[in-house]
Specification:
The structure is a homodimer. Chain A is an alpha+beta fold. Chain A has helices at about 5-10, 60-65, 90-95, 100-110, 115-120, 125-130, 155-165, 260-265, 275, 290, 350-360, 385-390; strands spanning about 35-40, 45-55, 55-60, 130, 135-140, 145-150, 180-185, 190, 195, 200-205, 210-215, 220, 225-230, 250-255, 260, 280, 285-290, 295, 315-320, 320-325, 335-340, 370, 395, 405, 410-420, 425-435.
Chain lengths: ~450, ~450
Amino acid sequence: MSVSSDLQATLDPSRRSWVEAANDPACDFSIQNLPFGIFSDSHDAVWRVGVAIGDRIVDLAVLEEAGLLVLPPTSANESGASSVFRSDSLNAFIALGRDAWRSVRIQLSSLLARDTVTLRDDAALRERALVPATDATLHLPVQIPGYTDFYSSKEHATNVGSMFRDPKNALLPNWSEMPIGYNGRASSVVVSGTPVRRPNGQLKLPDVERPVFGACRKLDIELETGFIVGRGNALGEPVACAEAEAHIFGMVLLNDWSARDIQQWEYVPLGPFNAKTFATTISPWIVTLDALEPFRVAQPEQVPQPLDYLRHDGAHAFDIALEVRLRPQRAREATTISRTNFRHMYWTMAQQFAHHTVSGCNTRVGDLMGSGTISGPTADSYGSLLELTWNGKQPLELKEGGTRTFIEDGDELTLAGWCQGEGYRVGFGTCSGVIVPARD
Amino acid sequence: MSVSSDLQATLDPSRRSWVEAANDPACDFSIQNLPFGIFSDSHDAVWRVGVAIGDRIVDLAVLEEAGLLVLPPTSANESGASSVFRSDSLNAFIALGRDAWRSVRIQLSSLLARDTVTLRDDAALRERALVPATDATLHLPVQIPGYTDFYSSKEHATNVGSMFRDPKNALLPNWSEMPIGYNGRASSVVVSGTPVRRPNGQLKLPDVERPVFGACRKLDIELETGFIVGRGNALGEPVACAEAEAHIFGMVLLNDWSARDIQQWEYVPLGPFNAKTFATTISPWIVTLDALEPFRVAQPEQVPQPLDYLRHDGAHAFDIALEVRLRPQRAREATTISRTNFRHMYWTMAQQFAHHTVSGCNTRVGDLMGSGTISGPTADSYGSLLELTWNGKQPLELKEGGTRTFIEDGDELTLAGWCQGEGYRVGFGTCSGVIVPARD
C-alpha cells in the first residue's frame, strides 16, 4: 500500500492528543485509531457521524460546519460541502471513497494532536464538538445491504468437523481450496448493547423420533471480526485479490450468535438459517484499514498454494488481540473465557473478497463480511462455547456464577479486540449482548 | 380472508376493460390481474410505478395527479397525498399497507372497467396515463433488503437427494419437518431481460486431485416463484402461520440461476454460495395476493402433520401454471422444456414465512422469498435442467438448435406463469435472461 506522508504521520506511535484519556496506553481510542461510528447524545437526539478519541466522541458535522474539517470534492460530492456527517449511517460518507476517508483521518489527527491549538484552545467549539462518550448512545454504524459470513479459521473448521462429522477427516477437501462462506441475514445485525432474545425453533433430541419445538438449549457465541465494504464492484466484474483491500473501509468485532441445536438439525444441505438469523451483533466503531496498517503481519502459510485468483504477495493478516468475556446476570465480575488473535486466520480478508466476487457477484458500500469464528491453536483460544466446552462435555468454570456449557439467560457476552502498539492501542472497544429469555 | 364487496368485485370473472387487449383470454394482464411494477418510457426516463393492463401500462402518478386515484391516509402517509408513485421502487407504496394496496386495486379496476367513462373518454389524459407496453422499459420492481430462498418442492428435493446423496434416502429427515431455506444474495437480483454472465469458479473434476478454475460447465436454471414481503415483523416477534399471508404483498416469477459444478464442490457444509450469487432473475410484475385469491387451492397433504407453529387451516396453495422455455442463440423458436404448477409445492408461503420468523428473525418491506425449484411429479415437469436431463445423462431434444444437457452461451431461458380463469388470465408475464460467455 502506498501511503502519503500525511497519512503516515497519523500512524506515528509517538503522536499524542490533547484529549488526555486517549494517551492512556490501555485506551482503545488513541489518536492513532480514529474509528468511525454513529451516535446521538442527551443534548441532540439526531443520529450523526462521530469519531472516538479517548473518552470523547468527535462530532464531525460540528467540525465541518465550523470550517475545521473539509471534505475533498469528489464525483459523489461535487461541491465539497456535504450532509454526509448528519446522517443515520456512515454509508454516504463511505461512498465518497478512500481519498475522502483518508483526508478526514489526516485532518482529525492533526486537529486532535497535542500541539494543535485550533480546537484545543477554543473552549466553546470544543464543548460542542467533543461529546463525552458516557453521554452518548452508539447506533448501528452502517446500513448493511448484504451480510456474508466466512468460515476461515482452520482451527475452528477442524474442531467443528471433529465434533459433528469425522475426527479423522475433520477438514473437508474444499476448505483448503477456498474461503468457504455463506450468505447471512442482514436484517438482524444489531449494534453492541442490544439485548438478544434466545430463539425458539426445532430441536431434534437424540431419544425422540420427531423434533420438538422449544427454546434453544445450546445458545452460543462466535467470536468474529467483520469488514465493511467501502467500495463495491459491479455485477459481473470480479475484484482481483491484489486489489481487494482497496475495497475495504474498515473492521468491526462481530458476534455471530448461534443456536447449536437448531443448527445441527436444520443445516444439511443448505447451511445454517434459523440458527443464526435471530441476531448478529457488531461493535459500534469501525476501525479503518488505514489505522490497522502498522499491525499488518504475514498470514499463516497456505498449503496447498491457492489457485491463482486467490494469490496475493505480501502480508495480509493483522495482529488483533481478541477476548471473550462472560458475565452472569448478577455477577460483578466477568470471566475471560477465551483469548485469541485474528492473525491465526487461514484465509485473508482480501482472499475472502476476491472469492466472493469471482463469480461476478456484486457488492455494495456497507456490505458486512464476517471472518468466521476465530479459534486459535490452543483449547483456551477457541472462539465458541461449542469448542471451549467441546459441545458441552467440558463445562467452563467461571470466576463468579458457577459453570457454563452454553449461554444461560441473563448472561452478558462481550467481545473485545485491540492492536497493541508501542505505548498506545488501536482498539475496537467492545461488542456485547445480554441474553433475554425465549418467548413463551 | 375477509374481503370487502368492492375488493370482491375486482375479481369478477365477467368484468372486462375498455383496454381491449386485456380482454383476450390468453392475455396475462386482464382487468382481474392489475400487477404492479416500475417502468420508464421513451417520453419520460424517470422510473415510476405502473400497473399492467392488456398491452398498456397505467402510470399511477399521472392518475393521482389528475385526481382519479386517491391514496387513503395512513400513518405512513398522513396527508393522503404522496410521491410513492414517482419512485424508483415499489417499497414506499407497499409500506403504506394492505388497505392502500386494496384501495388502489379497487379504484383501478373501476377506472379501467369497460363502462367507466372517466378515463376511457378523456383522450388527452388517457394518452398520458396509458403507456404502450412496447414503448416501456421495465425495471426491478422493488429494492430488496433481504433475499431468502426455500427448498419446498418435495419432488425437487427428492430428485436432488437421489442424484447427489442416496437414492434410497433421498429426502433428508429434516425436510419433512420444516420448510428448509437459506439466505440468498440480494445484491445480484436482477429484472427479467438482464443478460446473465456465465460465472467462473472452482470446479472439481472427477479425475483431477485439485479443483481447477474456469467457466461453469453445468449452468442451470431453477424455476421458482417468489413472494414480496408487504409488511415486515420486528426483531424478536415471530409471525404466526395463520397471520403470515397478511404479510405478503404479491408474487413474482424467479429464476435462481445455478452453477451446478461450482455448487457441488462448495456447498458442504454451509450451503450454496458462488454457485448462486452471480445472478437471480425476477419478473418485472408483482401479482398481488389479492389477484391470486380465486386460484387458491389446497396444498398437498403433509405427512407427518407439521409442528403446531407450522399449522394453518384452509387452502394455502395457488394454482399457477408454469413453463420453462429455451431458445438457442440463433433459433427463431423456443422449446418448452418443462410444464408444471405451483400447486405441487409441499410447503406453503405462509409456512415459509412463519418458519423464517419463528426464531425471532425480522423481515422488511420488499424482502424477496423464493419458493425453491418447483418440480412436478413427472419427468417433463421438473424445474431444472439438472433434473430434466438427470445431471446431463439424458440430453433434451430441442425443436431447433440441437440438444441440451445444461445451458449454452447465447441461450435464452424464459419462465412463464399464469392462473387460468374462466375466459381470462391472471398472468405473471415472463422472466427471461440470455447467457453471455464467461469472462476470460
